[in-house]
Write a structure and sequence with these properties.
Length: 577
Amino acid sequence: MRYSKFFIPSLKEDPKEAAIKSHRLLLRAGYIRQISGGIYAYLPLGFKALKKLENLIREEMNSAGAIEISMPFVQPLELWRQSGRDEDYGRELLRFKDRQDRDFCLAPTYEEAITDLVKKNIRSYKELPLILYQVHLKFRDEIRPRYGLMRAKEFIMKDAYSFDINEEGLDKSYKIMKNAYERIFKRLGFEFRFIKADSGEIGGSFSEELMVFSEYGEDKVVVCSNCGYSASFDDAEWAKEYHESLGSCRQPRMTKLFTPDKKSVEDVSEYLKIDKACFAKTIIYESEKGFIAAMVRGDHEVNEHKLKKATGIKDLTLAKEEDVERITGSPCGFAGPFRLHGINLIIVDEEITAQEYWITGANEKDAHMANVKPDRDFTPDIVAKIRNIGDGDMCLRCASRLSVKNTIELGHIFKLGEKYSLTMDAKFLDESGASKNFVMGCYGIGVGRTLQALVEIFSDENGINLPVCISPFIVCVVSLNTGDEKIVSLADRIYNDLLKAGNDVLYDDRKLSAGVKLKDVDLIGIPLKIIIGNKTIKDGKYELAIKKTGKREFYDNLDDLYNKVTTLVKTEFLNMI
């Protein structure tokens, strides 16, 4: 493909709307464009890379015995009512009516649709096990779409669903899919790990997330480098420890401390010259169960996922300032766990009851209270682990120190069991003729998100650096002087030779300066570039630049150049299998 005839609307400056590196690069290099908030168009470069990624995924899914189908993006809302999830998804489920006043939605996922499809077409155990998959659009009306393809409203996913006669069969299908995922992400060159996860709205008895390590990832996982323990940030466990610094604030009675205009734990800690670990902060939330108070150590933060789980609450938001003032009788920043008006539940982190004395807010302007003792000065309704885990917490298994690492979630696999077949009455006849529910599994990969993760992790200071198997073009022939007939003729010949050999080639034939052209090729991320200029004609040396290593190599004849290109491409592909 000639650059001058292709559509690559690259940008000279970083777009203001992009907050992370990969989003900036995808926009600057002309891979994607935002159409609306959280909705993107794939431009030719992005579309070529996307299709190569989809085909790599298809190769492994087909090899694992999965069968590709395509389900409708528009779904009858009745299916969601059958499963009971029409309300669970809330406003993320985009609902609408057709001209016959029938209710529909844009698919945020496909469990209901696939269960209904199999229910109507599979009758006997003889047709099982069965694994069906698709690569398709989804839509979730995210309240805060961000980071480009990482958290978009409309996005592309690979979904697979397994149907078995029993749990033993599900275990086998689950293992087959997990192994396929390992092959996919090894081929892409990622460092990844499966992490036990919460099943969320999808449900089921067990699930694991496939996490790719990246300092820019918005998800977090907890790992122990000693024993290999790993878990999602929200579900990780750690061992209790006694904090020695608490001894400095142990006294038998509550004592009021004057803290003029000092509201945050940091400000009060600095003012009183006392470690933040001696403080317990009280945070007021609003929920469907009314107002609740949550309490954690001053140097920790509430984990709202754990808080919801411990209380059985679904909807949780921080209380408004006026509600906090009414409940505590004081301005925000001075809340304590006692004399609270209109609080239905007080839940404290288990570390609070593990120690005797704390400094808390006094529910009074410019005042905090020292020597506050749980069960003497206030009574918790629930004691549970509700704080965020942190770097340096102790591993529950081996007592080593845990690390919190940033990750990007690219896949999620579930053992659904009978969750959907039971609610949607999806059955088959077993060997004895009895009617049984399908036992299901679900396996997803965020395809667009994976493409952006490749850019996030493997890009360099000059631009995108995709692996050969995903790059929109493998080789770029750059003609540095389009006004010189000898240069143009030689560049044309090399371009046509590479095309005939079956290479995916971009030919930069634009009438621009050499510097602009070379920077553009680096930005869009072509792995190999062959540079034809005055030096080539004069010295008879053919220059090959390898983006991954930064090396420049020179060849005396075209056959050697072509052989090197072939070797590099084959080696790169082999390293990813």
